[in-house]
Structure formats: structure tokens, C-alpha cells
Design goal:
The complex is a heterodimer of chains A (338) and B (241). By secondary structure, chain A is α/β, with parallel strands linked by helices. Chain A has twelve helices and twelve strands. The N terminus of chain B is likely disordered. The chains are: A alpha/beta (338), B mainly alpha (241).
């Protein structure tokens, strides 16, 4: 929770990680990829304020204590949503798996939401694992990397028949929040991995599910926005937007926020710090202080007020995940979202 | 890591830099020089050109990387007086494959045998269409700021507009796609078909042009930030933003 000028913000970090990318977890023979991946993440951290930069060594492997301090104690976060990323071809135990997240989270009841993952190419066995994960971790969401290259297959689409079986299972199991990674990708090499057309179709066919497009399709925000305007159950995940632009490129941050407010709207935007790429503290504080600039080039854009910031920082995600928000952090009934 | 500073002594070198200035990042629609992607270049007295390229991250999309290395190779090797050309992408997970494939003139699909199907012309065209939309915003915005009625934009032709670098660029991009780019061509066209924008479609068309430009420019600003984090020294011909 965060308080500024008498306004109280309930903060749900909709997108964060607990990874181990240190050399002890690198798969022999794939060291260059494991190292390249974490260095690439580390470079993104360079877009945040200098005083929040970590050494590469610390960034590769941070402790449970570091996370609890950075995210909850200092970072104003009330509930954090773990988004797993497996990458087992490069990292022996995975980069950050549902299991690793849950092992840590069970020591801190009420602090975390454990999302899981699936890949339609895993067939019936994968469906079984999904069911088990939901039973074991209570997952209400999942993170999907449709561009992941896997044993000769160059990615998949949400509209694949096999993926629809998983989406049906999600609907049945109450895994309501489907976070789809549409952002920087490595494989497949030739396809446009940012194409959001498959989300469009799946969102129409599964109106009971919510589709959160992570990184708002960066660098193709326009494709995402055109699609999101048509689908009531499509949301914008702001990880990278705030962390990558608000400090380093404030003018573009304002423009991207303006576009998202114009096309998607403040009821469908979710804060995510992308920790440990960026710490939530400066992002939450900076976002609460942020105002759309007055200059002419921003004059077309909607403004964002305190109520909108409350929704984006926590209330929207709380609604999707059924998180009980204390009364003093809720909006007045008249201005709350349906 | 450190990047060796290119000696600027040879006059002929200027030709290499000028050639590299014609090579664009297809996604960002900007020259690789101004983006800072040219680490170094040289041209020896006996006509051996060497170029070293660098990108913002180890995992930048290999399809775009391939296009930039191949285009740089083509642009430099077409220079008079250049006998051999070597373009080396550095610090990239697919550098060996890309450098080898371009040197062998193998094409993208053959370079990534089994991992890619088809060449990249379609991808390039997709991004040219985005560049046309972004360029439409660049040309229209000053007109709107000067009080031009949005509905009037629909009846304007390219020949009626005052010359400007953004207009020249918009015409070039449209011509590359085979879209109408002459004096009598309408300012507002659908980049997919070349058809004029219908009267009731103007506000949406302008909104799409605006967000496409914001998207490309925001992406470019992230790339610049990442590159600066990765390398201390500016690239050859780099322009700060």
C-alpha cells in the first residue's frame, strides 16, 4: 500500500519473477544462451534510475530476503503475481518455475498469486500437469509464451486446436487470467511473434476468460490497441511500459500512456513491475506522481486522475484475481468499475 | 567491451559511411548509422571494405538483424572501388550464422535451415506499411496544428503539400511498396491497398497513423537506451535523440 497526498493506493504487482540465472543453473552446452538471456534482461534494468541498478552478479541470483524487501517492504506492493518462465533448455532447474515460486511463497501466506504455464504441444500429459498445478498451487492464471521454439516446432498460436483444449480446461478449472507474452522474442526466426491476431480470436471464443497482453505487444503497440478496442476481455499488461520508459524516456512514456488510455482505457490496464528487472518502489512512486504533460503534442490524450491510477496500480488486477481489497483502498461506489 | 575508433583519414571512407546511411532498421525505419549500430568501418587502399555492426541486445530479432547485415553488404559492395566486402555482426547469439549466410549470399531460409521458412520480403513489406502510416502522421500533424480541417486532408494530393523531409520520406516509402507516390496521389491512402481513405474513415485513419508513429518511436527510444547501456562509445554516424 502506498499513500500520497492523502490518497491511498492498494498495489497489486501483476507481473514479477523470482529467478535463478546464475552459472550454477546453466545447462552445459547452452551457457551462451543462458548468459546472453540474463545479460539482455540486465540491460533493460539500465533504463531505470541509476541508483536502482544492480551488479550483474546480484541480478543473476537474488535471495528470498532481497525479494521480500524490494517488493513488499520498500516497494509498496500488497500482493504480487508470479509469472513463471521455464526456459529449461538453458536453465537446469528452469529460469523461474511455478514450483520455485510456490516454495518461496508458501512461507509468506497471502502475499503471492501463483500463476502457472502450459504449452499445447505437451498434449494430454501437459493437461494433466495443468490440472495438478491448479490443485496444488491454486493457480487462477497462467503465462503463455506462444513463440517458444520447441523440438522442431516454431511456436504455436492460441487458435491452434490443441491450444483450444487447454483454454477449455482453463475455463473449467477457473484459470481465468491468460497472460500472453507478446513482446521481444527469439524464436521462431521467421514468424512475426508479435502478431496478436490469435488473441483476438481466442478472446471472442472464450468470453469467460481474460486475456492480458503482456508488454502491450511492444514494439507493435498499434496492433495490440486496435485489437483490444474490439474485445471486452482483453487487458494491457504494463510491464516494461512503466519500467522501460517512465524514467528513461518520459516523453515517449507519456505518449504510450496516452495511446493506451485512448484505445484501451484505465479500466483495462494492469501495473506490473517485471521485478527483478526493475524494483517496484520507484515505479509506484513515480507513477502516482506522473501527470500527462501540458504541451500541445499531448493535448489529444485523455488525462489520468487519482481514481485511474488506483485502478491501474491494483484495483483492476484485484478484480481479475478476486483479491479482497480493504475498504479504505477501494474507490467510491460511483466511480468504481463495473 | 571496447570498440576501436575508426580512422577517418581516408577520403574514400566517406563513401562507405554514406552507403551505410542508406541501410535502415526495417522495424524502426531509421538508418543504422543514426541508431548507433555501426561500430566501425574501413576501406583499404586496395579496395577491401570492412564493417562491424552491433545491436542493442544479444537476442535482438535475428530476422531483422539478417536484413540489416545483408543490406549493409549490398550497399557497401556496390560502391565503386570496393573489391571485397566483409560485414560482421558482433555480440549476437546468431552472429556466426548471419555473418556466414550473408557472406555466402545464401538467403535467410538457407542460413537458418530448418528454423525458418521463406525469405523476409513479406516481413519487410509489413514494416514498410507501418512506416507509411507513421510518415502520414509526420506529414499531417503540422497541417492540423496550422488549422487544416481533418476532412480537408482527404482531398489533398501530395503535389499540393509544401516540400519537407517527412514528405520526401513518405513518398519514398510509398514508392518502395508500389503505392501511389506522384504529385496527383492522395495524401491519405490505405497502406495495404493504396485506396483512398473513405470520408468517414479519416478520424480513425489519423488515430492509427499517430499510434503507429508513437509505437515505432517509443521502440526506437528503448533500443537506443539499451545500446547505450551495452556500449560506452557512440557508433559511426550516430545521432543523439
Amino acid at each position: 500500500m502506498y499513500e500520497k497526498n492523502g490518497d491511498r493506493y492498494y498495489v497489486v504487482d501483476g507481473h514479477m519473477h523470482y529467478w535463478n540465472a546464475a552459472p550454477d543453473n546453466w545447462v552445459p552446452g547452452a551457457e551462451q544462451y543462458a548468459e546472453g538471456w540474463i545479460k539482455c534482461f540486465h540491460a533493460y534494468q539500465g533504463l531505470g534510475p541509476a541508483e536502482t541498478h544492480w551488479t550483474l552478479e546480484h541480478f543473476e541470483k537474488y535471495s528470498e530476503e532481497d525479494l521480500m524487501k524490494d517488493v513488499f517492504e520498500d516497494g509498496h506492493v500488497d500482493v504480487a503475481v508470479f509469472q513463471p518462465t521455464y526456459l529449461k533448455e538453458w536453465y537446469k532447474e528452469g529460469f523461474n518455475t511455478t514450483e520455485r515460486n510456490a516454495l518461496m511463497g508458501e512461507k509468506h501466506p497471502g502475499k503471492f498469486v501463483y500463476n502457472t504455464r502450459w504449452d499445447p504441444r505437451d498434449g494430454d500429459e501437459g493437461l494433466e500437469v495443468l490440472r495438478r498445478n491448479v490443485e496444488r498451487f491454486g493457480s487462477k492464471g497462467c503465462k503463455l509464451y506462444s513463440a517458444e521454439w520447441n523440438a522442431g516446432s516454431r511456436g504455436w498460436k492460441l487458435t491452434d486446436l490443441a491450444a483450444y483444449r487447454y483454454l477449455e480446461a482453463c475455463q473449467e478449472l477457473g484459470v481465468k487470467n491468460i497472460h500472453v507474452h507478446k513482446g521481444p522474442t527469439i524464436w521462431p526466426l521467421d514468424k512475426d511473434a508479435f502478431d496478436v491476431a490469435d488473441v483476438d480470436h481466442a478472446a471472442t471464443d472464450f468470453p469467460g476468460l481474460n486475456f492480458i497482453v503482456e508488454h502491450v505487444g511492444l514494439p507493435r503497440i498499434e496492433d495490440f490497441c486496435f485489437m483490444a478496442t474490439q474485445e471486452p476481455n482483453v487487458y494491457a499488461g504494463l510491464a516494461v511500459v512503466i519500467g522501460g520508459l517512465m524514467h528513461a524516456r518520459p516523453r515517449f512514456f507519456a505518449k504510450v500512456m496516452g495511446e493506451l488510455l485512448f484505445w484501451v482505457g484505465e479500466d483495462k490496464m494492469l501495473f506490473g513491475s517485471d521485478y527483478a528487472i526493475w524494483e517496484p518502489k520507484w515505479q509506484v512512486e513515480g507513477f502516482v506522481d506522473w501527470e500527462m504533460p501540458d504541451a500541445e503534442e499531448f493535448s489529444d490524450y485523455p488525462r489520468l486522475g487519482v481514481a485511474g491510477k488506483k485502478k491501474i496500480l491494483g484495483l483492476n488486477a484485484a478484480r481479475l484475481y478476486g483479491i479482497d481489497v480493504p475498504a479504505e483502498y477501494r474507490l467510491e461506489p460511483a466511480s468504481s468499475a463495473a | 567491451m571496447t570498440i576501436a575508433v575508426t580512422p577517418r583519414s581516408r577520403v574514400a571512407d566517406a563513401g562507405v559511411l554514406a552507403a551505410l546511411e542508406t541501410v535502415r532498421d526495417p522495424e524502426l525505419d531509421e538508418p543504422i548509422t543514426s541508431l548507433g549500430f555501426v561500430a566501425a568501418y574501413s576501406l583499404s587502399a586496395d579496395g577491401n571494405a570492412r564493417v562491424r555492426l552491433r545491436l542493442p541486445t544479444y537476442f535482438c530479432a535475428p530476422n531483422f538483424a539478417f536484413l540489416m547485415v545483408a543490406d549493409a553488404y549490398d550497399a557497401v559492395s556496390a560502391l565503386p572501388g570496393v573489391r571485397t566486402t566483409e560485414v560482421m555482426l558482433e555480440d549476437h547469439f546468431a552472429a556466426d550464422a548471419i555473418n556466414g549466410g550473408v557472406a555466402a549470399q545464401a538467403g535467410f531460409a538457407a542460413t537458418f535451415d530448418g528454423e525458418a521458412v521463406g525469405e523476409l520480403a513479406g516481413l519487410r513489406a509489413d514494416f514498410l506499411r507501418k512506416a507509411v502510416m507513421a510518415g502520414t502522421d509526420q506529414v499531417c500533424r503540422p497541417l492540423l496544428a496550422a488549422g487544416t480541417d481533418p476532412a480537408r486532408l482527404r482531398t489533398l494530393t501530395l503535389g499540393e503539400l509544401p516540400p519537407s523531409p517527412p514528405l520526401r520520406r513518405l513518398r519514398q516509402r510509398r514508392a518502395e511498396l508500389g503505392l501511389p507516390a506522384g504529385d496527383d496521389a492522395p495524401l491519405l491512402i490505405e497502406p495495404g491497398t493504396g485506396q483512398p481513405v473513405p470520408a468517414d474513415g479519416v478520424p480513425l485513419h489519423l488515430s492509427r497513423a499517430r499510434i503507429t508513429r508513437v509505437s515505432i518511436e517509443a521502440n526506437g527510444s528503448i533500443c537506443r537506451g539499451m545500446l547505450r547501456h551495452r556500449y560506452d562509445s557512440p557508433g559511426q554516424g550516430e545521432e543523439e535523440q
